């Protein structure tokens, strides 16, 4: 029954958020089960362009490190029992696993990432409702820009930056919303990205990653919401028509006249 409830709740999540969340969970599970190694996933320009390992352009956004699977299953089955991650790695001086982390720390990491995915869903259900193509295009725009800037900053995993971008855009489009931060603080939505960045620092994450997401989020927000409303401004980010054709529901032609047999009887 618990599994059925979880599946039903998951199917209620909007399509883009559901697909991205599933990809992140499956990638993390594959690493957790040692089917994949983080060394196969991180962004490396040399391996991408010289060895043609182009999948790294995608997997860099899918792996967040261990997300507290012990806590996840405890919440599902109400069964205590800490789990150890049992592996560690280091790339360029950045450690993505903490094998000595306690269950409480693992829990806070999991809650932190769940918080970010929650606002991804709220963004898709809010200002992007009925606009899957535009939402996907925002992912693509942010992903390309983060890859270029991340290369300059020697960042290897960019999923956290992508989540920071989504949170930033949501917060700027919901300025009057009051946010309850883990039951500890209450503040207006535009302060949320900075609160999450501070919380990320307490968890030992790199501030540069969150800053990258905030900067890219601000660029998107400015080009999409601010500049078009300025004198002489216009929309510069236009979603390709093939994405709209592929992802959006077809719009009804207002000039369409149904056949007599299709018209309702009076």
Automatic annotation (TrEMBL):
GO terms for biological process: cellular response to stress; proteasomal protein catabolic process. It is a multi-pass membrane protein. It comes from the Eukaryota. This is Derlin. It is found in: Endoplasmic reticulum membrane. Keywords: Endoplasmic reticulum, Membrane, Transmembrane, Transmembrane helix. Pfam families: DER1. The lineage of its organism: Eukaryota, Metazoa, Chordata, Craniata, Vertebrata. It comes from Neotoma lepida. Signal peptide: none annotated. The keyword Amino-acid biosynthesis does not apply. GO terms for cellular component: endoplasmic reticulum membrane. The chain crosses the membrane at residues 20-42, 54-79, 135-158, 179-196. Functional component of endoplasmic reticulum-associated degradation (ERAD) for misfolded lumenal proteins. May act by forming a channel that allows the retrotranslocation of misfolded proteins into the cytosol where they are ubiquitinated and degraded by the proteasome. The keyword Ribonucleoprotein does not apply. Its main location: endoplasmic reticulum. Belongs to the derlin family. InterPro entries: DER1, Rhomboid-like_sf.
């Amino acid at each position: 029954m618990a599994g059925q409830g979880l599946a039903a709740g998951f199917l209620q999540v909007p399509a883009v958020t559901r697909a991205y969340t599933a990809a992140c969970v499956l990638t993390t599970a594959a690493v957790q089960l040692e089917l994949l190694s983080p060394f196969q996933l991180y962004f490396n320009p040399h391996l991408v362009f010289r060895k043609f390992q182009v999948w790294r352009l995608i997997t860099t956004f899918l792996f967040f490190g261990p997300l507290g699977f012990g806590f996840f299953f405890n919440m599902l089955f109400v069964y205590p029992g800490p789990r150890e991650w049992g592996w560690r790695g280091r790339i360029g001086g950045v450690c993505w696993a903490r094998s000595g982390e306690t269950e409480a720390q693992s829990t806070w990491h999991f809650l932190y990432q769940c918080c970010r995915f929650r606002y991804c869903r709220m963004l898709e259900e809010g200002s992007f409702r009925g606009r899957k193509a535009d939402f996907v295009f925002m992912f693509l725009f942010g992903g390309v820009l983060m890859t270029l800037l991340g290369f300059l900053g020697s960042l290897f995993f960019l999923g956290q930056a992508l989540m920071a971008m989504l949170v930033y855009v949501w917060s700027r489009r919901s300025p009057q919303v009051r946010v309850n931060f883990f039951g500890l603080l209450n503040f207006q939505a535009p302060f949320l990205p900075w609160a999450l960045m501070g919380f990320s620092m307490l968890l030992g994450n790199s501030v540069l990653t969150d800053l990258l997401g905030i900067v890219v989020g601000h660029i998107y927000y400015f080009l999409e919401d601010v500049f078009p409303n300025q004198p002489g401004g216009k929309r510069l980010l236009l979603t390709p028509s093939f994405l709209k054709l592929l992802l959006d529901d077809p719009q009804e032609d207002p000039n369409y006249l149904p056949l007599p047999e299709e018209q309702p009887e009076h």
